[in-house]
């Protein structure tokens, strides 16, 4: 991925920083758009994955909408020029302030996650004499076969309306003059690499769509969420197989005439376009462990500490023919969990070497913090 020119450029910059490959981002966006167009599918970008302005501008230019999970994400989407009628607002805990602001902006749809939330939105919309479009997010109890901390579609999860609460949802919808029901919404988890999971989701979507239709509702939209994963172990395989992904839904969703199918993709679009570039501060060789201590830490990339997530780590200052050593690659933060990888086989490293932590475009920069009074993480882009 990195040319000699890239490495020379990196050596002149203050580390740590996120490096974004904008050409790869554009290729990924175009691949997704072309695959979705075959089926007439609508794509919203999940802004929680990365809300870097430069990335958002490219995503908006591709024609995608925005999937937002906070009031400030809704504001950011509008500031960056996303079409309001392509903005959906999800989230299990929307505040009254956030709902009111989204109502004022006349966004496309609220993805509603409880019976009580339906009642709250109806009341707030009524005070403004507006009608809010809503989709009911249903918890389908589908196992995404992903990390426990990023599973969202099981009965034990906090997200969505459980099946036993749907009759109450239907009653609220029928008696709420300031709500317009337009469809149903699902999201079962993140970093999903087994496409059979989505086949199971389609079967559940079909069941719930029929449930609403049997009770007199017109289901104009099926929003099946996102969650498509990337290959963290092989970052050079950079663009996910969007054709295979969308084909699953094309084959197994029982789509009605004039019914729209919407997706909310995040990681799959931006995950591979970035690497965190750091510098070796110290090398500590011991009897049981060898440590590389970087100037990047969990304040720059939280995922390994939070999820025990894997990222490929490379010493880009050394040739591949150099002798190799197993290192624990750690950061400078005063926490034992500040570790990017254990027993990582790298070229023998020394102070000043540049280290690339790959596949950090999603949930990297956006989850950075000021813990230990760390500075804002820097970013740079491909020329």
From TrEMBL:
Cofactor: pyridoxal 5'-phosphate
Enzyme Commission numbers on file: 4.1.1.20
Example GO BP: lysine biosynthetic process via diaminopimelate
Name the record gives this protein: Diaminopimelate decarboxylase
PTM sites of type N6-(pyridoxal phosphate)lysine: 48
Leading EC class: lyase
Domain Orn/DAP/Arg decarboxylase 2 N-terminal: 37-270
Pathway annotation: Amino-acid biosynthesis; L-lysine biosynthesis via DAP pathway; L-lysine from DL-2,6-diaminopimelate: step 1/1
Keyword Ribosomal protein: no
Mitochondrion is among the record's keywords: no
NCBIfam families from the UniProt entry: lysA (TIGR01048)
GO MF assignments: diaminopimelate decarboxylase activity
Entry's family note: Belongs to the Orn/Lys/Arg decarboxylase class-II family.
This protein's UniProt keywords: Amino-acid biosynthesis, Decarboxylase, Lyase, Lysine biosynthesis, Pyridoxal phosphate
Active-site positions on this chain: 334
């Amino acid at each position: 991925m990195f040319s000699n020119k890239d490495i020379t450029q990196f050596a002149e910059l203050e580390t740590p920083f996120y490096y974004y490959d904008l050409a790869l981002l554009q290729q990924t966006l175009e691949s997704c758009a072309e695959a979705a167009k075959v089926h007439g599918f609508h794509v919203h970008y999940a802004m929680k994955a990365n809300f870097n302005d430069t990335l958002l501008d490219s995503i908006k230019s591709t024609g995608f909408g925005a999937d937002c999970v906070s009031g400030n994400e809704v504001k950011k989407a509008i500031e960056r020029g996303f079409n309001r009628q392509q903005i959906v607002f999800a989230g299990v805990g929307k505040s009254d302030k956030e709902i009111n602001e989204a109502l004022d902006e006349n966004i496309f749809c609220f993805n509603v996650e409880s019976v009580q939330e339906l009642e709250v939105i109806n009341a707030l919309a009524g005070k403004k004499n507006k009608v809010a479009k809503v989709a009911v997010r249903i918890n389908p109890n589908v196992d995404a076969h992903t990390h426990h901390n990023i599973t969202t579609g099981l009965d034990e999860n906090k997200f969505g309306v459980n099946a036993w609460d749907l009759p109450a949802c239907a009653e609220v919808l029928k008696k709420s003059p300031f709500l317009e029901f337009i469809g149903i919404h699902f999201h079962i988890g993140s970093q999903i690499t087994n496409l059979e999971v989505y086949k199971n989701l389609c079967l559940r979507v079909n069941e719930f769509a029929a449930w609403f239709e049997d009770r007199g509702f017109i289901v104009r939209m099926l929003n099946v969420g996102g969650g498509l994963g990337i290959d963290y172990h092989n970052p050079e395989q950079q663009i996910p197989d969007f054709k295979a992904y969308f084909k699953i839904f094309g084959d197994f969703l029982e789509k009605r005439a004039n019914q729209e199918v919407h997706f909310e993709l995040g990681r799959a679009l931006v995950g591979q376009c970035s690497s965190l570039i750091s510098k070796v501060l110290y090398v500590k060789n011991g009897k049981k462990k060898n440590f590389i201590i970087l100037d990047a830490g969990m304040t720059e990339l939280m995922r390994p500490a939070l999820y025990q997530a894997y990222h490929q780590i490379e010493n880009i200052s050394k040739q591949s023919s150099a002798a190799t050593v197993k290192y624990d690659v750690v950061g400078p933060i005063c926490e034992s969990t500040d570790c990017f990888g254990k027993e990582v086989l790298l070229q023998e490293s020394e102070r000043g070497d540049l280290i690339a932590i790959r596949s950090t475009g999603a949930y990297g920069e956006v989850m950075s913090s000021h813990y230990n009074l760390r500075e804002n993480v820097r970013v740079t882009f491909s020329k």
